[in-house]
Structure formats: structure tokens, C-alpha cells
UniProtKB/TrEMBL annotation:
CDD domains: LciA-like. GO terms for biological process: bacteriocin immunity. Pfam families: EntA_Immun. It comes from Companilactobacillus suantsaicola. This is Bacteriocin immunity protein.
Length: 93
């Protein structure tokens, strides 16, 4: 993987850390982001964490519960981790 992509991914996870501290997020959004952070801290592969995070945030988006504060993270996550996971699969866990 090229260095710039690795740096962008590291920046994305850093952005997620900042969002977890935000007062503007719902409890559900904070839980989803905190779960992802815990997985990363437990050395779970970042691509797996990204796929699960995208799935969970997609579900919130479909429900209309994704806050505007999280949208830039979700967009960048989708751009940097394009194509991971199975096509057409939405996980609700």
C-alpha cells in the first residue's frame, strides 16, 4: 500500500477519535465509533474495521439517524476503503 494512502487512513482514524469526543453525536453514533476504536486498539485489521463501520453507519443513514457531523467521516471512509465487504450486504449488528 502506498504511503500517502496509509497516511490518509491514519488521518481518518484520528478524525474518528476527535468525533468520539464531540458533544454533537448521538449515543448510538458514539457507540459505533467507540466500538471501531476498540477493535483498532485490539489490532483487528483496519480493513475489517472499516467494512463493519461503513455497514453500521450506512444503517444509521438509511434510518435517517446519521448526524451531519459524522457524514464527512463516513464519506472519507467509503472513499478510502472502497470495495471492502460483500456486495449488497448490510450488517445490522
Amino acid at each position: 500500500m502506498e504511503v500517502s494512502k496509509m497516511n490518509k487512513r491514519a488521518s481518518l482514524w484520528s478524525q474518528m477519535d476527535e468525533l468520539i469526543k464531540s458533544e454533537e453525536l448521538s449515543a448510538e453514533e458514539k457507540k459505533i465509533l467507540s466500538d471501531a476504536k476498540t477493535q483498532l486498539n485490539n489490532n483487528v485489521d483496519d480493513e475489517k474495521v472499516a467494512a463493519q463501520l461503513k455497514s453500521r453507519l450506512s444503517f444509521l443513514s438509511i434510518k435517517g439517524s446519521l448526524s451531519a457531523t459524522v457524514v464527512p467521516l463516513f464519506t472519507e471512509l467509503s472513499r478510502l476503503y472502497l470495495g471492502y465487504g460483500r456486495r449488497g450486504n448490510i450488517s445490522i449488528n
